[in-house]
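COURSE: Structural Biology Practicum
ASSIGNMENT: Worksheet 4, Part C
STUDENT ID: 0417
INSTRUCTIONS: Below are two proteins. For each, the amino acid sequence is given first, followed by its structure token string. Answer the questions at the end about the second protein only.

PROTEIN I
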Amino acid sequence: MKPSASVVADASPLIALARLNLLKLLPKLFNSVFVPQTVLAECTILAAYPEAVPIRAAIANGWVALADDPVPPQSWNLDPGETSTIGIAIERQTGVIMDDQAGRRTAHHLGIPVIGTAGILVQAKRKKIIKAVRPQLEKLSDSGYYLDQRLLQTTLHLAGEV
């Protein structure tokens, strides 16, 4: 996906970037980043979620923009967040930022460009916005965020850090 494209973000990448204090990468990599109302609710439903504050701040700072959920949303047998993310991407003809494998497969099947958290980190390194990907992935893993070992190795290879 072109780094300058417009995208719709799903919950997992927003949560991951919030944990890394890297939501500020989004406006540096994409023209526009939209967050469906359903996804915002998933990310901020409990005020106790530590990611809720930085995600709301990203909206307040204009780094991401809220988007109304598609009407009527299709389900594609996905959860409501992935469903609304893909629905808005279809409506706006954008790509998606998504980590969920079933959602990514559906987006690819529908011809929607997809990038995930790891891809965002690689793009940020390539643009010299961050120095290294490995420490970010380690922080993410240490925070309890699941990262597949094959994905880790592929990401580090793409970042030139193997």
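PROTEIN II
(use this one for the questions)
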Amino acid sequence: MPQFCRYILVIAAFAVLAVAMCGCDNPVSRSLTEGDEATTTDSPSMSYTKLKALYEEAKAAGEQVPGDILEWAKSDLKKIGTWDYKIVSISSESEEAILNELKRLGSQRWECFWVEPKPGGKRFYMKRATRSYLQIAGGASKFVPVPGSGE
């Protein structure tokens, strides 16, 4: 691995650690809602009530979730920074038909990152960020252990 790549990886690791330590993934404070335990975004841990609500939201959305909330939280954290990929072949040469299909895919959060011709049409390579409920709710950093904290 070239030396500059190692430097970039080290810098990226420090940046992730800094974000995790300061909780910068959700800098805007939120007010407490009914049933929420006494935690805010500045708190070092997310309330069980909030975690359970996110778990139930994922379940209601049709996600395959484990039976244990903590196991779900661990698997949800692993989704952060990962991508789903999809290859779509469109046989039409009509720009309007291609545009309509790309708009449909875009509404599902798919983003085209490569196009290649194929006989009778085009092949589109798509990606989208894997959905993480903890990241969306701003609670991901609450689960990252801080070095020296005994966890």
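ANSWER KEY EXCERPT:
Q1: Residues 20-44 have pLDDT under 50 and may be disordered.
Q2: The first strand starts at residue 83 and ends at 90.
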